[in-house]
Design brief:
The chain has two domains: about 170 residues, Rossmann fold (3-Layer(aba) Sandwich); about 160 residues, 3-Layer(aba) Sandwich (Rossmann fold). About 40% of the residues lie in helices and about 15% in strands. Helix 4 packs parallel to helix 5 and helix 12 packs across helix 13.
């Protein structure tokens, strides 16, 4: 590892909003920035207005002006949440900036988009990625999608998966109920509606569900989830906690018996490895890169959107504590081999070096 006083290079990272935002993509971006700085890089954070990829003309103009203010030949990593809709602005600067795209998952793969909007985002992101000297993704699933559908040549692609910090083993619940934890923003892609419908058929079992995630990104959807929980008679069994801080999230993990993530698509699924790092088993959709994120034996994968399959798998774990204990043992065995943030930062730096000269 480089010492902290060694000058490895200068880098600008373009954040699509407040770097402190508590979503997987933002956590990845700021953690990589911090680890690169510790390795001797000079890392400048260029922060764009919040709201991407739903860019207004003002947001686009602000991004264009920010890019124009960067010096020639600056190595510049642009998060795909903004890059995917900045094709015209990136085209203006591709000749003088060494642009690197960072794609967590293609914008067009967001759940709930109308066909025309999906096509528009796909075309825009395809054009934007053409201006990148290198494209980094957080999973092989995303890299394969970019190669197959977005015109990114394999030699311009590389995967740098998120890492995870070492964490103490979770104690789990002690009140006789199985504590289920879902850490995900309240947006359609995360599939909360499937989870609630599945659990509605299991009210004769002892369980409690905590939903930790911001309701601000899709307020209409969040309101519909509250209404769904009430209609299903689950209000006493489901806690809507909103966005939680690090200490509260750590406490939720510590008391959890099972992490549940019913997403329709994930560019990685960092909460999966965060749970496994604590010895918490996982029940997740086999969607997107969740197949890559979940270590063998540390949990189960369920078909995305399949309410009956979710209910069946949940029932099996609720009805037989031995099965849940076996998965917890699998999570504990997987802990020592989890990819760390130091490994991720070293891999990221190695990819940057390929366009830094």
């Amino acid at each position: 590892m480089a010492t902290e006083d060694r000058d490895e290079g200068t880098l600008t990272v373009v954040f699509p909003g407040d770097p402190a935002t508590r979503t997987g993509g933002f956590i990845y971006d700021r953690t990589i920035c911090d680890r690169l700085a510790a390795r001797g890089w000079t890392v400048d954070r260029l922060v764009l207005p919040d709201g991407w990829p739903a860019a207004t003309p003002h947001m686009t103009a602000a991004a264009g002006a920010a890019l124009a203010g960067l010096p020639d030949d600056r190595l510049t990593v642009v998060d795909g949440l903004a890059a995917g809709v900045l094709d015209a602005e990136l085209a203006r600067h591709a000749g003088r900036l060494r642009l690197v795209g960072l794609v967590h998952h293609p914008l067009a793969e967001e759940t709930g988009l109308k066909p025309a909007e999906r096509e528009r985002l796909a075309a825009s992101e395809r054009a934007a990625l053409a201006h990148m000297r290198r494209v980094l993704t957080t999973s092989q699933v995303t890299a394969d999608s970019l190669a197959a559908h977005y015109g990114v040549a394999p030699e311009r692609l590389a995967v740098v998966a998120p890492g995870v910090e070492a964490a103490p083993l979770a104690e789990g619940s002690s009140d006789g109920a199985v504590h289920l934890l879902c850490v995900a923003t309240l947006t359609p892609r995360k599939g909360h509606v499937v989870l609630l419908e599945a659990l509605a058929g299991l009210t004769d079992r002892p369980w409690h569900l905590s939903l930790a995630g911001s309701a601000d990104r899709a307020p209409d959807y969040a309101e519909a989830l509250h209404a769904q929980a009430e209609a299903l008679g689950l209000t006493e069994r489901v806690g809507f906690l909103g966005e939680v801080g690090e200490a509260e999230l750590a406490a939720l993990y510590h008391a959890a018996d099972l992490l549940v993530l019913p997403s329709f698509h994930e560019g990685f699924g960092m909460v999966v490895v965060e749970a496994v790092a604590r010895g918490i088993p996982v029940l997740a959709s086999g969607a997107g890169a969740l197949v890559e994120a979940l270590p063998p034996g540390a949990g189960r994968l369920v078909a995305p959107g399949d309410i009956l399959a979710w209910r069946t798998n949940l029932a099996a774990l609720l009805d037989d504590p031995r099965r849940l204990a076996e998965l917890a043992d699998g999570a504990r065995r997987a802990r020592p081999d989890l990819w760390t943030w130091d490994q991720a930062a070293d891999a990221f730096a190695a990819e940057l070096a390929k366009v830094a000269g």
